[in-house]
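Re: beginner question about structure tokens

> Can someone show what the tokenized structure looks like for a real chain? I only ever see the sequence side.

Sure, here's an example I had lying around. Input first:
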Amino acid sequence: MSRYIVVDGNAIVHRAYHAIPPLTTKDGVMVNAVYGFTSMLLKVWKDLKPDCIVVTFDMAGPTFRHEKFKAYKATRVKADQELYDQIPLVHEVVKAFGLPVYEKKGYEADDVIGTIAKQLSKKDDEVFIVTGDMDTLQLINKKVKVYTLRKGMSDVVIYDEDEFNKKFGFGPELMIDYKALRGDTSDNIPGVPGIGEKTAMDLVQKFQTIENIYKKLKNDRKKIEEELKPGVIKKLVEGEKMAEMSKDLSTIDCSVPGLEFEPEHCRVREFDRERINHLFQKFEFVSLLKRVPGFFEEEPKKPKEKKVKAEDIKLVEIKSDEEAEKLLKKIKEKGSFAARAVLDGKEPLDANLLGIVFIAGPEAYFAGKDYLEKVKVIFSDKNLELVGHDLKEFVKVLKLKNIEIKNKIFDVMIASYLLNPGSRAHDIPSVVLKVLGKGLTADSGQESLFGIDKKSLAIELLLISQAKEKLKEDLEKADNLGLFNKIEMALIPVLAEMELNGIAVDLDLLKGLAKDVDEELKRETKKIYEMAGTEFNIASPIQLREILFDKLGLSIEGIKKGKTGLSTSAEELEKLHGLHPIINEIESYRELAKLQNTYIDVLPTLINKKTGRIHTHFNQAVTATGRLSSSDPNLQNIPIRTELGKKVRETFISEPGNVLISADYSQIELRIVASMAEDKTMIEIFNKGEDIHKATAAAINDVPLDKVTKEMRYAAKEVNFGVLYGMGPYGLSWRTGISQAEARDFIQKYFRAFSGVREYIARTLEFTKKEGYCETLFGRRRYIPELNASNYQLRSAAERMAINHPIQGTAADLMKMAMIEVDKEIKKLNKDGDIKMILQVHDELVLEVKKGLEDEVAEIVKNAMENVVKLRVPVKVGINIGHSWGKMK
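And the corresponding structure tokens:
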């Protein structure tokens, strides 16, 4: 028996284009759909281990269904040109893997799939249809399964007969009857007018086929009237012809004429690795190369050929003082070295250090724990350069052994990130492949690139060293070497220490909060059920949609539609405010559930057993703007303004005898706008120390400060911050409740009052379009080729990024510089760990200090943060002190 994969190419491409944010190569070629398709192909290849793979596509032009029903798919909005442009690129991927493509003019890919599946299921073969929509579910039988996407590109479900029955309550063969009754808005299949999903499902479960329904309506009317409401019967009678036509349109043709399918052509065979490597480099899919089946294995018939000469490296295990001295001498002669710790676990706080692997030139050395004392002198030499990947973890390991790194450091992960901040592919395989262009012999499932043995780590380090030279050249070309050294590298030891410091948590308060939230969730659930008049799964978008729009009949005007129907996202629910009290309750329920699942139930599991504290990870190579992010837990996402968010923050506390100091930049992004735009009016407002939002309202409305109303100030505040994100009249209208005409007038008045800001935005967009990138005050670049896209939404989003990056990125650079300066200053005062920097969230820095030192430390922190960079306006920092992060005064 063979296992076949039949890929619905168009469905996967469309799903990928809409699910994955815009991805472009440095040349500006859009590849998000190509990436999603390739990723899905590799996923099913790995998950299903097929013997044969075939890919199908739709062909341009009408099909036989258009001849039967001219309005077939007539309501479907034409896809973006950026999507169509990627289809030939997807064909390139398919060809590179040597996979056959099947398509037939006048027929859809579903018909081709049905014909292939029918032919294969006659044999003893197993077929998996890989798709992004539900149309092919009707093909499921004992030998045919559907591997489909529920949401995005990662939430996958496999439907066999049992799974289908669980979801729908009837067999796959009745899917066409279900669709004939409810219709399909995406294909403009009418169905029976007035019959929705739930009613259609009930009808099929009771009567099976539409033929049976209409037979009973004609021959057994009295009995059917006992089972169905009069309204439903009326709709069925009036919609009989529509139902018959809809079933005809919904039925996949499994006998496409002239389709010559050859199973043997689909066998998975050896592909051209060089072609794959070249294509993936062209599309900048280096992170996907490690997922290509067999890519890292030696090519057959060429057992002696090695792709990486580093495999010839010799590893010397230090077993004498003489060998240790030899290592020290080699490192000093070369002036730089690469190093990595060998641990018996993943987290430095919980693992034991077994030794360190060093690379000095082409030689590798391993110093076990018996010789660490002898070689640690290497790390105190300021004239040497330490090279590595994600060096923060290595710094933490050595700090725990009281070894301070004083070398110059070069982290290839951060270098890769600075050069391409829009990418997330900065892991070791991606960096090595991208920079050196080498295919590596590796098992990507192991802890490191080559496993955890010392020889493998040595090879990895040698490749990192080689990549470093090219990365350094590229940083110099981009004028980013100064930013790299002065900010990013200088920040690494600061972040390492913060992660080791961690923060204390009030476990009793957290337990009490967990109990309160659980009870509140039950109350909210009960309220929602009462308002809805029935119980349902509040977390299910489909069930919530039925309650809001079908049962309660709320207006759908302006509500966006997704693939499965009307959206119930937070953004869409905001549009329903005031229409029904259930909306407020659903929003409260969602906030409670999110904080419960993300923080309240999770925080106790993250407390380290050794320290009794939570140790978040600060990520330097994630956000495109340069801001730090955090994970395990993500402290950036705790709501600041909600009561529950404040209560979660209250559980983060100082230990007995200590207090917390919070230092928060005041309106830093607006101060940066004033400085970068050189806007005279805004600069004057800040220099006078006036309330920026009140003063903005006064300038726009042409009234004295004392005549500014709360409403005026609120609208001005929305524009002040909205300008940073390219907000237009619609956005301002939606946020403030004023009409779009008023909002348009308000924005025009704003730009008349702050002409420097208007000119700055125009200047920034012009520069970014011309150069392909924008940059912060300190030279942090972000490449935005989408600015020249033909798609309006894509281009608009790119314009917002171009306006926002220099501002938000400068604020991020400023905060990082402040952290470096604060760390330097508090070290002059710090004794016995009395002062700890523990958190950085948004524009806020949090320290824990010994009681009695808070006033002195607060003054040091405030001065350092306010004076690290001089802008054209004063930089202000607010200081709060307390025992709880959520209760600072």
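Each token stands for a local structural state, so reading them left to right follows the chain. The first strand starts at residue 3 and ends at 8.
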